[in-house]
């Protein structure tokens, strides 16, 4: 039987409709939320994601500011741009598009962001609050993709309570922060984080009620790894060029045959990607509401 689809486009559209009303209410109070993006270099994927963030802002009434910098930018020049955004009252939140070029120290850049303007929730203060505030609501921005994964499942009437979640990939935007989030009492999941050093990944995956595949390794999750009835979220992004058309397309971490075994799968594209974008807007709106 074919799995049901976790439609990220539909869920993201619903979130954006809700946010439009909240932005209108903020504007009535004279508060204009403004998201800035910092893009370094000319990677077409990153350019496409950043352009999408500006389109999303326009759709819900958030002002947006662009800072596009050449690949050759130095650490000091990039930090000066962040200092300027930290001081700019029209920028209420901002993101630095990742990945950054190899000559840039990404950790130092993330630490330079004012935690009160950290729309991605990746500043050490905000990641630390995610770990510390175990028994009270978190009043600081949370990483967008983990938030998007959680929302996508819940908006389809599914619960995390008591589920064994196996996450594949230990990157800073998904794998590392999703465990502290899903193990909070309100979600109550049990999380296993796997990575390239995990022995017998297939055997670990077979124990999962939910798989979150965020390794960026095409087709790493296959049908024989998946327990019948599991929920499978495909967060991985690899790009493949079609030899006939020369056009590039996104391929995920989940082999399409998984849909014959799982109960629910998120398509890729059209699953977690649009949710990441919607939850970024939600972070911006929440930060403006709290300010
Ligand atoms: N500063 C950040 N950098 C990066 C993040 C992040 O959350 N913060 N995540 C990813 C890229 N990303 C957002 O920035 C992102 C990835 C994918 C999508 C998306 O909507 N994808 C579409 C398909 C797109 C395509 O065809 O290329 C989909 O899934 O339907 C949005 C945002 C790394 N960097």
From TrEMBL:
NADP(+) binds at residues 169-171, 237. Residues 6-120 form the Tetrahydrofolate dehydrogenase/cyclohydrolase catalytic domain. It catalyses: (6R)-5,10-methenyltetrahydrofolate + H2O = (6R)-10-formyltetrahydrofolate + H(+); (6R)-5,10-methylene-5,6,7,8-tetrahydrofolate + NADP(+) = (6R)-5,10-methenyltetrahydrofolate + NADPH. GO terms for molecular function: methenyltetrahydrofolate cyclohydrolase activity; methylenetetrahydrofolate dehydrogenase (NADP+) activity. Catalyzes the oxidation of 5,10-methylenetetrahydrofolate to 5,10-methenyltetrahydrofolate and then the hydrolysis of 5,10-methenyltetrahydrofolate to 10-formyltetrahydrofolate. PANTHER family: C-1-TETRAHYDROFOLATE SYNTHASE, CYTOPLASMIC (PTHR48099:SF5), C-1-TETRAHYDROFOLATE SYNTHASE, CYTOPLASMIC-RELATED (PTHR48099). This is Bifunctional protein FolD. The lineage of its organism: Bacteria, Bacillati, Actinomycetota, Actinomycetes, Micrococcales. The gene is folD.
